[in-house]
Amino acid sequence: MVRQSRKKIEQIKEDEPMKVCPYVFRLNKSSGNSKKRSKPKIIYLLLFSLISSCFVFAPHLFYFPYPSALCLIDSSIKEIEDQVSQTNTEPPKPSIIEESILCDRAGYRSDICFMKGDIRTHSPSSSIFLFTSNDIITDHVMQEQIKPYTRKWETSIMETIREVKLVTKDVKKLFGDKHSCQVIHEVPAVLFSTGGYTGNLYHEFNDGLIPLYITSKRFNKKVIFVISEYHKWWEMKYGDVLSQLSDYPLIDFTKDKRTHCFKEAIVGLRIHGELSVDPSLVQDDTTTINEFRNLLDRAYRPRINRLESTEEHRFHSKAAKRRRMANRPKLVLFSRTGSRAITNEDLMVKLAQRIGFQVEVLRPDRKTELAKIYKVVNSSHVMVGVHGAAMTHFLFMKPGSVFIQIIPLGTDWAAETYYGEPAKKLGLDYIGYKILQRESSLYDKYDKNDPVLRDPNSITQKGWQFTKGIYLTNQQVRLDLRRFKKILIDAYSKSIS
Ligand SMILES: *[C@@H]1O[C@H](CO)[C@@H](O)[C@H](O)[C@H]1NC(C)=O
């Protein structure tokens, strides 16, 4: 019976309204476990609500040029609210708009669910309940599952992410104080994971902070972040940035066992692409990658002001020298040791100084305070480094400045995709310096005709473990300084013009 009904759902999905809005009250397989599964009437009622809610959403979809096939539920809810408040027409039907669990699973990189109504967290079972008295909803328990992390396509890392269950509960069956609210919040929740690859700078920005910015910006800091796979160090490291996105303390979803109550919650994050914000996917034109960078600037300013006042104090006698140096354009070098290090780095630094740069060499580790790095990078004209996670710091550069990425053999695709292209989107003057065979330490290890040197693509095509084993963890760079000098001179003239 259930199977049959589901077939009907499939059929209806072919119809127009469903195409427009395929995610409203999406039935989940697990809902088949509910005791009431053998009641076809219920299913029809549900279908009716499905279709009718689509009609509610559908008109708005024609107002806005949404990307095809995507039903941006959060935006449509927002648009409905906006429209209602702007035109002051009838309020939206409470049963459909005010109580809902809507999941958008169309994204390649992430799923995201939206809840409205009487929302209560239940940390021990990793659940968020939606309490309702709406018969249409209560007669058929709805349950959605979601892993609130933005690397949906990478099954192995997703296995490390705890699933969150979103479940409807009948408010009439709410006895005693079992689920009574212990903390009541007037602002919405955004729940996401800081597990997975968190610990790597690129992933922290790409999988976490930028998606968090995209998802939560519209709440204007009136939002509470609920975090699964929470790490204290992460909160410390990004405290400055988080305070620009939310006025409220974080909730550690695993450790904080209290029942938190919300009227609205988003579970999961929207993500657009590598270290970027796609303007065509946001309604509001103040959500951009440049605005994200401005947010970083605001985030780090107080700390930098404090750093500067103590520096003034300490280096007062060196002020004259600093003033002389300050006239020179600054080049910041992200230095690596071990793999992908530049073996003639000292000579490269001297060369840059001779050309006229004031050079600052940074070797950040996981404990280095980001505000300090921001301070250096934000005051630089040129940033140089060998392809790797530290290139994420290009986000700290002022638009218009020069970013030189040194690209070891076999890393072209990753270098361009993860950093080169996003840097251009931020408005940086990006230069990819592809090293020649003889600038690679692999040149001494392999025969000139070995495909490792001659045709890196043929090796990297074989899979990530080959790219990693041969090119990422076992290669160093010995710059041809005559060749690199041209790049530096070019960067210098751009810096002083
Ligand atoms: C970054 O640099 C710009 C331009 O030099 C400056 O106005 C801004 O205050 C700097 N940001 C911080 C946080 O120091």
Notable characteristics:
single chain; 497 residues; alpha/beta; Rossmann fold; ten-stranded mixed sheet; 19 helices; 15 strands; 41% helix; binds 2-acetamido-2-deoxy-beta-D-glucopyranose
Structural write-up:
The protein has 497 residues and is an alpha/beta fold. It contains 19 helices and 15 strands. The protein has two domains: 2-287, no CATH class; 327-496, Rossmann fold (3-Layer(aba) Sandwich). It has helices spanning 2-14, 16-20, 40-63, 73-87, 94-97, 135-138, 155-158, 201-216, 232-242, 289-314, 319-326, 345-355, 370-378, 412-426, 442-445, 451-454, 456-460, 464-472, 481-496, and strands at 100-104, 112-122, 127-132, 143-146, 164-170, 183-184, 189-193, 224-228, 251-252, 260-267, 330-334, 358-362, 382-386, 402-407, 429-434. Bound molecules: 2-acetamido-2-deoxy-beta-D-glucopyranose. Its main location: Golgi. This is Glycosyltransferase 61 catalytic domain-containing protein. It is a single-pass type II membrane protein.
